[in-house]
Amino acid sequence: MQQTTSIVHIKGIRDGLLATFSDAPWEDQQGALLGQIDERPAFFQGARLAIDVGPHTLKVNELVDLRDRLSERNVSLWAVVSESPTTEQTSQLLGLATRISKPRPEEQRQVAEVISSDSALFIIKTVRSGTRIEHPGNIVIVGDVNPGAEVVAEGNVIVWGRVRGMIHAGAKGDRSAFICALDLSANQLRIANEVSASLKPQKDPRPEIASINKEGYLQSEIWNAG
Amino acid sequence: MTAQVITVTSGKGGVGKTTAVANLATALAMDGKRVVCIDGDIGLRNLDVVMGLENRIVYDIVDVIEGRCKLKQAMIRDKHYSDLYLIPAAQTRDKNAVSPSDMIRICKDLRPDADFIIVDSPAGIERGFRNAIAAADRVLVVTNPEVSAVRDADRVVGILEAEEKGSPLLILNRLNPSLVKSNDMLSAEDVLDLLGIQLVGIVPEDENVIIGSNRGAPVVTDSKSRAGQAFKNIARRLQGQDVPFMDLANQGGIWSAIQRLTGRK
Fold first, then answer.
1. Per the CB < 8 Å rule, is B152 touching A129?
2. Partners of residue A34 in chain B, C-beta under 8 Å
3. Using 50, 70 and 90 to split pLDDT, how confident is the model at B190?
4. Does A95 contact B at CB distance below 8 Å?
5. What pLDDT score does A106 carry?
6. Three-class SS state of A106
7. What pLDDT does residue B107 have?
């Protein structure tokens, strides 16, 4: 089952349908996608759609608009795959997945680049319940991580704020990764495949750093600059 | 003069969205404003019951959208305030009968002849919620001082921020000052600390709210009720007035009066 038109390709994948956009202007492609859906409403009725937008940089309102227009046609948008970090971040803020079952080879290459250049995903806002932030490198958050939020990094995680959600550092197995925060009262911390029990909120919070110690356990200790 | 569209939402169900809508709308009407309430909870309508207008419904919002009646025909006038109207939800349909663009269109048609349009959102963060916030100029998030309600409110605030709806205002409903004092309930500070949004009012726990809802007479019409006073204050703040917050700690009957007299906490 594969249909081809000039600019948007739609094919069936394991998790529903995948629409692949080319680098033609965004407006045209959105129009082409909705046009294809309108042509055969019965086929798309109730479909779960993932889109691969390639290098397009999409803003929140563009994605919201597309999602609403799809939803009016009874198609639910669940994932946005993109090469643009901005688009990925936008999608994550809207609670959309950014990976589909089979990661693309280009993505793997990007991961290696990100880690080697030590670039970090930098977020200046509170990460709220239901938000999942994923990044193949380090993550720096200036704000709180609220209960119900998940932050997953293949590198380290630094939070200039209070952590009460879940943080996973070294998600691909890096046991030297660490998590530090001004107040680490998370309900769960993970580094590589180690999981910590819930940390009790403290009366008098101090900056803490969590890492895997010599015995191989995940532990957190008060940050001691001296 | 064009109306302001205010959507009341919460994430979790049962925290008092509908009660807040009925009371704020009535309070605004008591202040002489022209108000239209829209029940956005298609399939589970109950704003009409809380406002005491159940038996007057002929047409509903889905009839308007599907062209079976004019917008004016679906607007039910309140029993006591002639400038307060309700557009009821359909009880026999579901959320998919309405789309975000329908809500935007209806609100656009209502704007010239009203001061406030108040939309009651269903619980959850799915289609009905999307419909309810589509036209909103301002969003009020209602929560209770309970961990689960606060977490859902946090989720909703995150979605609203991501959709660039601006920072919502918070109504903390059903606060029980004596439970907070004994450390058995989250305090207003705890909730604000987590959500980090602006507070527009705290409504104390008050059994008159339930009595009023069942009678179809919102509690703001009861001049003795503390909760009613709190809703009136919120309505004034929505009109841009600067109203000081009520001192909730200094109430709670004879015992607290004695404690105040003897100077003990």
1. yes
2. none
3. very high
4. yes
5. 44
6. helix
7. 96
Residue A188: how many other CB atoms lie within 10 Å = 14
Tell me how far the alpha carbon of residue A22 is from its chain's centroid. Answer: 22
pLDDT tens-digit series, residues A163-214: 999 999 999 999 999 999 999 988 789 999 999 876 666 677 889 999 999 9
B196 near A CB under 8 A: yes
Q: Where are the domains of chain A?
A: 2-102, 107-222
**d(Cα B262, Cα A33) in Å, to the nearest integer?**
73
Mutate to test the interface with B, among A62, A66, A128 (most CBs of B within 10 A): A128
Q: What structural domains does chain B harbor?
A: 4-262 (3.40.50.300)
Q: Is the pTM of this model over 0.80?
A: no
Cα B261 to Cα B9: distance, rounded to the nearest angstrom: 41
pLDDT confidence of residue A110: 43
Give residue A85's pLDDT.
78
Using CA atoms, how far residue A23 sits from A6, A39, A53, A57, A152, in Å, is 11, 23, 8, 11, 30
Å between B206 CA and nearest CA of chain A: 29
The highest-level CATH class for domain A107-222 is: mainly beta
Give A-chain residues touching B158 at CB under 8 angstroms.
93, 127-131
Architecture category of domain A2-102 in CATH: 2-Layer Sandwich (3.30)
Rounded to an integer, the average pLDDT of B57-77 is 95
